[in-house]
Amino acid sequence: MAQKWLLASALLLLAVFTGQIQGQMTAEEERLVNWVLEEGATLRVTIGRRPDGVRGLFTTQAVAKGDLLVYIPDHIVLSVKNVAASEAAPTLLKELHVPCSRLRPYLDVLPKENEVLTGYNFPVELRWEWPYDAAACWLIAGIDLGPGEEVTISYGNLRSDDLLLYYGFLDTQTSPPRLLAVDHPKFKPYESEELVDDPHLAGSPQDIEGEMARLRAVQAAVEERLAALGPVPDHIPYVAGLMRALHEQRRHAIRHELERLQVLLAAALTID
């Protein structure tokens, strides 16, 4: 999923950009919309502002669950279907410095520093559908939407390490933080199974003690590894800040899970 570089996704990225409080699109936004329409796109959304000034996408008509919201022809999509995966990012960076780039309508609406708002578990679930052999990609509504309703995307039930790996931000709204995917007892490398928390852990006191021992070993290994690596360098402040926050979330989540398991163990021993 991290390999899909969608030029037309700028329309959806606008949903998390900060913008001025206005009721109409900027010239750059109008240029983007006109460009994708001229290239054969279908849009049942428009760019607008929420009352708090955040720029977003809003439906232009009633849309039923499963209906098309956005259709983007393949020839204006930058993806691993037409650019090698290893060349996708370099190609985009190169185009940024070409004044007459054919991608200019898209490039001109990319966010500047401090203009991106990140969230978690948006209320409206949508999905991109993009079969490898199709000549387009499209966005499908996950619920019924009325005219003028805001369109957002759910990233799914992902944990902070997956969110950082695939999307570049952390889950900062779940409190206490959940165990990272790599620390979850059901984590399996190279598998994309969704890891769901089980607050009512079933099992004997021995099972609970075994999980606590596993987590303590993870905790010790994490601290040993971080001590060996030393402080996170500040060459790229934003990335350094994310890594420090991830490390602290990981510590907090493990401590909290150990405390939760201790309560479960005490209750299990009392019952026995």
UniProtKB/TrEMBL annotation:
**Lineage of this protein's species?**
Eukaryota, Viridiplantae, Chlorophyta, core chlorophytes, Chlorophyceae
Name of the protein described by the UniProt record: SET domain-containing protein
Q: Which UniProt keywords apply?
A: Signal
**Molecular functions (GO terms):** protein-lysine N-methyltransferase activity
What organism does this protein naturally occur in? Tetrabaena socialis
Where does the record locate the signal sequence feature?
1-23
Q: Which InterPro entries match?
A: SET_dom_sf (IPR046341), SETD3_SETD6_MTase (IPR050600)
**UniProt keyword annotation of ATP-binding present:** no
